[in-house]
């Protein structure tokens, strides 16, 4: 799931999320090749078909669709469903929803990369406090 989180941070251009999730992947023992290749996963030989489907799904959700097209096409959903059972696909879908929540917090709160040790609950309070200063 951290691969998907990393790709989301890259797509929205958020250094905090990119560094945070890169660190999580390193701690989990991911290779530097896989971490580095997330941004160009489509032609990288390092990802399983299931991982590619998950990365395609997060890209479809976060990037604008061509005019008149759905972001998540039936074909993309079917591809993801080929690799994940119903429960796993539901978990992936919920995780993508959570990613969107944390993207909003990171974009609004603007944490600095060095502050990645801050726990998310504390970060939420910081965001709330920052907004009350307006």
TrEMBL record:
SUPFAM superfamilies: AhpD-like
Domain annotation Carboxymuconolactone decarboxylase-like: ranges: 2-59
InterPro entries registered for this protein in UniProt: AhpD-like, CMD-like
Name recorded for this polypeptide: Carboxymuconolactone decarboxylase family protein
Taxonomic lineage: Bacteria, Bacillati, Actinomycetota, Actinomycetes, Mycobacteriales
């Amino acid at each position: 799931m951290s691969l998907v989180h990393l790709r989301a941070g890259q797509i929205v251009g958020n250094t905090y999320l990119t560094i945070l999730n890169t660190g999580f992947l390193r701690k989990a023992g991911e290779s530097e090749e896989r971490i580095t290749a997330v941004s160009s996963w489509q032609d990288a030989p390092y990802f399983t078909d299931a991982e590619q489907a998950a990365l395609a799904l997060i890209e479809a959700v976060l990037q604008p669709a061509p005019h008149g097209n759905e972001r998540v096409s039936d074909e993309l959903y079917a591809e993801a469903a080929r690799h994940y059972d119903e429960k796993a696909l539901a978990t992936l879908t919920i995780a993508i929803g959570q990613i969107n929540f944390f993207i909003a917090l990171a974009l609004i709160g603007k944490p600095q990369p060095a502050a990645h040790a801050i726990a998310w609950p504390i970060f939420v309070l910081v965001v709330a406090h920052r907004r009350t200063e307006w």
